[in-house]
Specification:
The complex is a heterodimer of chains A (384) and B (343). In chain A, 32% of the residues lie in helices and 23% in strands. In chain A, strands 6-7-8-3-9-10-14-13 form an eight-stranded mixed β-sheet, sandwiched between helices. In chain A, a hairpin with a 2-residue loop joins β1 and β2. Chain A is globular. Chain A starts with 5 loop residues before the first strand and ends with a helix. Chain B has 343 residues and is mainly alpha-helical. In chain B, α9 runs antiparallel to α11 and α12 packs antiparallel against α13. A two-stranded antiparallel sheet of chain B has the order 1-2. Chain B contains 13 helices and four strands. Chain B is globular and about 80 Å long. At the A-B interface, α2, α3 and α6 of A face α10 and α11 of B.
Amino acid sequence: MAQPLLEVQNLNIAFDTERGQIRPVRDVSLAIYPGQTVAVVGESGCGKSVTALSVLRLIPQPPGKVLGGEIILEGRDLLKLPEHEMRTVRGKDIAMIFQEPMTSLNPVYTIGDQIAEAVVLHQRVGRREAVQIAEQSLREVGIADPGRRLNEYPHQMSGGMRQRVMIAMALSCKPKLLIADEPTTALDVTIQAQILELLRKLQREQGMAIMLITHDLGVVAENADVVAVMYASRVVEFAKVEGLFDHPKHPYTEGLFRAVPKLGAHSERLETIPGTVPNPAKFPPGCKFHPRCPRTRELAARARAEDTIEIASAGEHFRVLRRCQTDEPQLREVAPMHGAACHQIAEYDRAAILIPRLADKREVVPVAIVDGDVEAIVKQELAT
Amino acid sequence: MTSTTHDDAQSLRPPVQPGAYDPATAVGASPPRSLWRDAWGRIRQSRRAMFCVVVLLAYVLVGLIGFTGVLSNETVVDGATIPGLIDRTIGKSHQPPSWTHPEDGGISPSYWLGLDFMGRSVFWRLVYGTRVALTVALLASIIEIVIGFTLGAVSGYFGGIVDALITWLFSTVASVPWILLMISFAYVLKNKTVWGYELTGVPSIVLALGLTTWVGLCRLIRGEVLKHRDRDYVLAARAIGLGHGRIVFRHILPNVFHLVIINFALGLAAFVHAEVILSFLGLGVTEVPSWGRMIDDAKLELLKGVWWPLLAATVMIFVFSLAVNLFGDTLRDALDPRLRGTD
């Protein structure tokens, strides 16, 4: 099996705040292989963005600090690199695009200047050549008339175009890994589809790996090869995209899928996961999901009283299994190449701890929807 | 039927005239302008500001005359050293202004503004004073901007202990009344030598002003950099591998530089005033004429009815301050449109 491009092992991040230390990332492990897309999914505040930023060592320190773990890029531990070497990794080996294309570009420079700056920094080229590379990368991301656009300022562009510029900037140095932190959240739906299609196309052409941070399961379904589901600072499920969507194992993942509205289905209200995301300053003991977990509640109702414990959550009193409340589950391989962290999966006790390395590429590659086909496809969907 | 109406509509449409608005070519037709070109365009639209620019350019020209040899303290003519125009006694003391030379009757600028108590030409002393005032204001501004911007940017960008130290430093400097601080600086620097260079007159006053006035700019820049530090574009710049120095000076600086320019323009008048005050108090320029010294020299003469030296210097300061402030206002509006209509 090939070596992973990037391997995060037992990463622990802490922030010192006035109200004590909070730990938004605990024991996070994941591996990304060349050419692969790994999606990191979770609610706001689950630690997915902090994980992404810490790969580039962009966590502000202080207040942030790395308590432990390794981030290995092609055999080098990024956490041990001196700052000046880290600067050559940023942009050249690993590039990043952000959620907010409206504010990620410097308003006082033309976009040509900004792309060329990254090129001059990482490639041994002169200014004129850098501008040519910038123009070429603008063309690659599908911006019309790139020669003229080079001399324009960010405020002259729409959100979708700015995100294309950000992608052009990130890709101008041909990085091995692209970290995309919710790249489509701030864009409207049609532009989202274009941007994601663009990322897939560039991935096919350049063979780079993508770490896709998102909370949109639709985006995951279309783009990811492997998915890591995060909940309250931990990876709770790690699997191939087909495995995860066909057989979600963790009750949190199940809840996420139930919460997605279904096309054509009628219901009075949307499904939700009861309760709220726990405050990172005071996570519950044991499994961090147990106060919201329907599975443990159901099982507790049928279990012997001494195996259960009464807790209060969201103004409600109910019983959960004692083990869920006291013992933190680990990510174990509950099915072949499928890891989940939940005591109440039948195979959990017999399963081994999962080393989250899945080199798989997805089998079903989504086709781009060409204009005009959309209506036909929706009709067909509704008919079935 | 429908096709005929369609054709009718086609034929009714007037032919596109050359130069008329055509959406096909109009997209993005106005070329992008940089902030500075944009600001200059706005300043040019204001007649008041353009008038001020002309006045200020005139001051600069007059100041440049002050650098010519004829005015300087000593001029070499035929191998012999004679005092320059500014210190030479050319007539009776307290001679009132006149267009012409009192003896030969020809037009002579030396007599236009009269003579002072030592019979020296007020006109040429005023011209030389312009040179001194502008030099002091420019050099002191440069010192102020270098110290104020650097400390403010470092403090705002890095935060933490660095910020605490710099904040402590400028709070301390700011807590001393500025005139007192400036006087003590001027007093300490007076007649000192640094690297064999004597700190008298202009250099001492430049240092005194530059070293005491950076607090306001520093505070302003610190706050502004603090705001920009957490913007996404700074994070994005770090993500492509830029170092701190480049981020501060290449990315944040242009975003706050309009404040430096505005501060510089509005500060010029304050520096000229400060130079006048220090010279008036006898702590500033002593060897060469300056507007402050002229006022100091003329204040007692006024009682004898000798009004021209005092009036000349005062009007010079007044017009300069007015032009600088009016121009600065327009400049601020042009560079920072959000501030338009506020004070």
